[in-house]
Amino acid sequence: MEAIVEQLTECVVKANKNKQALCIRGGGSKDFYGNARALRYPKLEIRPYQGIVDYEPSELVVSARAGTPLNELESLLSEHGQMLAFEPPDFNGAATLGGCIAAGLSGPRRGYAGAARDFVLGVKLLDGRGRILNFGGRVMKNVAGYDVSRLMTGAMGTLGVILEASLKVLPKPESERTLCFELPVEEALETMRRCAGQTLPVSATCHIDRRLYIRLSGIESAVDAAHVKLGGDEFGDNLSFWESIKNQTHPFFRGNKRLWRLSVKSTAPPFSITCEQAIEWGGALRWFAAAEDCTATAVRAQAEKAGGHAMLFRGKDPNISAFHPLPPALLKIHRRLKRQFDPAGIFNPQRLFPEF
Amino acid sequence: MQTRLNERFQNTPQGREAETILRNCVHCGFCLATCPTYRLSGNELDSPRGRIYLIKQLLEGREVTRKTQLHLDRCLTCRACESTCPSGVEYAHLLDIGRNQVEQTITRAPIDRMLRFALRKVLPNRNLFAFVLKSARLCRPLLPERLQRMVPAQPKIRQNPPQANHPRRMLVLQGCLQPALNPDINHAAERVLDKLGITLLEAQKASCCGALAYHLDAQPEGLDAMRRLIDAWWPYIANPDKPIEAIVVTASGCGVMVKDYGRLLKHDSAYAEKAARVSELAKDIGEIVAAERPELTRLLENCPASEAEAIAFHAPCTLQHGQRLDGVVENILKTAGFRLTRVADAHLCCGSAGAYSIVQPHIARQLRDNKIAALTRDDPTFLVTANIGCQIHLQNGTQLPVRHWIEILDRVLCGETGDRNP
Amino acid sequence: MPRANLVKAFRKLLPSESVLFEPEDLRPYECDGLSAYRQMPMIAVLPSNEAEIIEILKICTAEKIPVVARGAGTGLSGGALPHADGVLLSLAKLNEILEIDPDACTARVQPGVRNLAISEASEAYGLYYAPDPSSQIACTIGGNVAENSGGVHCLKYGLTVHNILKLRVLTIEGDSLEIGSEALDSSGFDLLALMTGSEGMLGIITEITVKLLPKPETAQLVMAAFDDVEKAGAAVANIIQAGIVPAGLEMMDRMTIAAVEDFIHAGYDPDAAAIVLCESDGSNEEVADEIEKIRDIMHMSGAVRIDTARNEAERRRFWAGRKAAFPAAGRVSPDYYCMDGTIPRKHLAEVLRRIEDLSSEFGLRCMNVFHAGDGNLHPLILYDANRSGELEKAEAFGARILEICIEAGGSLTGEHGVGIEKLNQMCLQFGEAERDIFHAVKAAFDPDALLNPGKAIPSLRRCAEFGAMHVHRGEEKFPDLPRF
After folding, report:
1. Domain co-membership, A157 together with A46
2. Which of A272, B12, B294, C295 is the most buried (most CB within 10 A)?
3. Which residues pair with C371 in a beta bridge?
């Protein structure tokens, strides 16, 4: 494994010297995600750098190399009755831990348990100068120095190559059950909102195809009690439904239409837009499967009005920035940070924003 | 906290006491949260921790000016900080030492001196104050509206003193301002205790408890008032034939002072022992009534059940922080069938604080308005408190009646006119 | 600009009582909750709104004057220690709760609002703000964000970083940034995480949107006494391993138990070597089930006494003992020095043993309070500041404890921050390259290094000097430990 790190370092040092842009890549499960230009550059393959570095179930912490396949990591945790509580998608099954952290994507449980960034405790990083850096650690609480580990989460590899990551893990719930309600969107949003204001063991919500799905997770008696409180029918195929939402294999996400992801204030009213919509995270995540005539400007304006932002998740368009553009003052800080971590601008240029 | 007291103070009793208190403070800042003046100004100098620091630099021999005096003056001595302090810092004692030192170092502006002098002379003098108040009430219609509101109205007096002479006897502090402002409080206490089988006695020549002068930068004057009061009480206390059980105080502001006599006079060999005995006997009227709970409950059974009236109780700082009697009066009122509304920030001072509302009118008014807002949020039919100062001060800021709780308990037990005989 | 001119300039912006510049007024501002470090600022200003802060920062930027932000001054690492040539910017007057949105479960507040005040204001809606540092009655939310404060419930409910949504930040260059959003994530880098715990070095926070949670239906507490610290440590591990995430999981050692029991009378077992407090909250069903499991595990782990609080009053009393641990130290000893290291839980027994050795070596007593759930150790070193040399001894003792935590794979601070106090140990926890990145991050926000300079991140020179001294002392050398 040491040899791989040496190789990667050498590669970065050389690229830095020659100002040669690189595309950092793990399993390629998220090649569709972000701005496409970065994919043209020579690949810095991380997948070979894999393996669990340390896992102590009683510490609730796992550390693994970036190339470790996500499903391998998750099955190890599962053996010990634990899980990654942010339920990261692995799309085509090839996702790696490094890509999972770099993209910072979280699944259905995010609205209730937290996001990828909430569980990142530490990273080992290869910066633009080819230096290996350690931030954070393997303890739950650590406020020494700036939180660079979380800064890496969702930075799409633009600030450095994640070599290892330590994550907080949580016990798997004893029991899970999904309830299903036939509800129009307004009532579904209202129900989601009511759930959020009470101490119910809700772990996921999704409104899709005019049905509201609510997943309950916890000890059996608590799940029973919540079921009684909420009513509704038990939906049989619990696991595969949520898998299909998480990995976007559900028919809603398929097809050639553009898929917009709007992250908004959970109480935002339903959007008046003529396209198919799905809602997750108690109302805080809205998906638009939109035709091409639905302009980016219009979608982004709606998202901003609802206190959030819009991302073109699938269906790349060279004329549309995948991520919501930043206001000038924030862009200034982003550019400066980029320059500090990656002075030659070699890591995933423009994958995140066209400006760097 | 580290201390390096100036030689001048190192070997004085006050200096030693101050040092012990200062060493207990770990500078955690919890007291900031419950300090009324800090909550208004957000300035560390108007917080207990800031004042402790100001006093510390004074005792460490650094130069201080009128500004230190100003920030010490602004303290209400509500002692909410002491209730909050996890390290047991006796802030009020330290403040007394600090104020006394500052008073000796800094000369006040003439106008300030005059005001304080006048207050010290008029307020504790029962007859003089009664005369001033009477004159003011007479002139009231002629005064501008703002001043009109400052003159407390004449309350309804329901004199109906009990005649019984019970074997259980207690002394009652008559007070200085209270008889003129609201004599009904002590009358009510007499009637209620009479029902409970206790006779209240008033000592001749007993006057002010000394709190006003003591907290108006004339500590020696205040101590003299205390000695006079002890002298007036002593024949009753020392009488072996007809012993008194307790000294009842119906104003919590006076109560906290009398309970502190023992400490304040401990270095006065002539009075130390007597003062300690007085402090030992001193009880708030709430403590006395609470101790008779079974009898009270029995009496209440015979009273016509009144509809559960919603009342808002303001616990005076001297009751909840000074005497640490949080919840005592509240429980009595609940027993008597009243519904107490929820009051946010119940630990905060109303701004009355002895003569504070006169010497610091601006802060006092802000605190009063905040307090009234907190008290009236759940629409009570009237407000209730346990100290004459708070009662008058609050009444200035609201149309709702403000009463002493013993008055309303009296009305329940003895009827509107004070003559009900169950 | 000379001080007099600066005072004049500030007085044009603020009422005169809000501009402090004489030693008499400044001395009470010379330290925060860590009074061992003291420094008077050149000037202290007390603005009451964002517009005033903007103008103050403009003057400071133009004149290159350092700015140190301060909330309630309850911090325990000297993070708000003033700068001798700088302006102390008190945010205490910005203490308004601007909005509570019970539907979205959020509150928008100013930085000077007290942590507990948010929960008090949300109570009417059945909501509360979860992070509860021990100083929650007094500490401000702005300070919580600056330090990424935790609390006894953070194993289950997270730290400040997990419970805030959005910040309004003024940069020293005069830009106003909206970081984060009312949604659950936002576009671009996670600057919200970067700002949280940045100890006032990156920007001045003027508004914070926090997440509120529904109040749990019920809470229940188990207190277990052990005759051996190792067994108590094992009990903690067993609880976690059994798939339980308790709302609170705390441990105290023998000396702490004695000190606390003396004045709180919490009902702890005075003969115990360690006590573990384990709280469960949630719905009635969950709590009943979890408490039963916890009791079983405590029993299996060898607890000599297991008590479940019989009622709310007893639950509060059990907690009161734990919460009073720091002040109890203040009653046992005139001064105490509180450390804040974190360690992987499995090293607890070993670390405690080494602390005990150091205690006899330095001749100073030490109490240990432990947020066992998340490995956060608070050794309280007892000393007397009025005895010459004792503070220095306490500091040396503390430094050694932090070094032990770092060696064990932990961190030198779990929740109190680095501030001025732990700068030297930062040189041990991070190598030169990491520190270089920290300085680079700072430069991205504050190119002239005017915000809280000299805190949190040691200069390269300081580390070089500290390193030389450290090796020179001939004690254990600390090679650049890999953090993984």
Report:
1. yes
2. C295
3. C376
Residues A131 and A269 in one domain: no
| A340: in domain | no
Are the CB atoms for A309 and C186 separated by under 8 Å? yes
Structure tokens at B274: 């007597």
User: Taking the CA of residue C273 as centre, how many other CA atoms within 13 Å lie in the half-sphere pointing to its CB?
Assistant: 14
Same domain, A216 and A128: no
Question: B65–C385: do the CB atoms touch at under 8 Å?
Answer: no
For A93-114, the pLDDT digits (tens) are 999 999 999 999 999 999 999 9
Any domain includes A38: yes
Pairwise CB contact (< 8 Å): C414 & A133:
no
The alpha-carbon gap from A77 to the nearest alpha carbon of chain C, in Å, equals 12
Q: How many domains does chain A have?
A: 2
Looking at the fold, whether A190 and A271 belong to one and the same domain comes out as yes
Strand B382-385 with B402-404, pairing: parallel
Percent helix, percent strand, percent coil in chain A, to nearest 5:
35, 25, 40
* Mean model confidence pLDDT for chain A: 94
Query: DSSP assignment, residue B319?
Result: I
**Using the beta-carbon criterion (under 8 Å), do C193 and A61 form an inter-chain contact?**
no
Domain around A120: 2-171
Of C18, C20, C73, the CB nearest to B29: C73
The minimal CB distance from A219 to the residues C289, C422, C433 is found for C289
Q: Which helix (H) or strand (E) holds B299?
A: helix B293-301
Residue A294: name the closest of A269, A277, A270 by CA. Answer: A277
The pTM score is: 0.93
Boundary-marking domain end, from A154, A171, A188:
A171
Residue A266 domain flag: yes
DSSP C4-54: HHHHHHHHHHS-GGGEE-SHHHHGGGS-SS-TTS----SEEE---SHHHHH
When pLDDT is cut at 50, 70 and 90, the band that residue C164 belongs to is very high
Name the one residue in this structure whose structure tokens are 């006897």. Answer: B169
Question: Are A284 and A224 in the same domain?
Answer: yes
- Write out chain C residues lying below 8 Å of B344, CB-based: 120
The model's confidence at residue C478, banded by pLDDT at 50, 70 and 90, is: very low
> Which residue positions in chain B have pLDDT lower than 50?
422
Q: Are A113 and A86 in contact (CB under 8 A)?
A: yes
Q: Per the domain annotation, does A179 fall within a domain?
A: yes
CATH number of the domain bearing residue A160: 3.30.465.10
pLDDT in tens, C55-97: 999 999 999 999 999 999 999 999 999 999 999 999 999 999 9
> Which tops the pLDDT comparison, A292 or C137?
C137
Write the residue in B32, B67, B88 that is nearest to C24 by C-beta.
Answer: B67
* C-chain residues near B62 (CB < 8 A): 23-24, 27
Rounded to a whole number of angstroms, the distance from the CA of C88 to the nearest CA of chain A is: 22
The last residue of one of the domains, among A171, A203, A229, is A171
The sign of the torsion formed by the CA atoms of B98, B101, B103, B105 equals: negative
Helix and strand numbers (H, E) in chain A are 11, 17
Same domain? A163 vs A203: no
- Do A184 and A276 lie in a common domain? yes
Q: Please give the Cα distance from C82 to C68 (Å, whole number).
A: 6
Is residue A226 located within the same domain as residue A274?
Answer: yes
Residue B295 dihedral angles phi and psi, to the nearest 5°:
-65, -40
pLDDT in tens, C24-66: 999 999 999 998 899 999 999 999 999 999 999 999 999 999 9
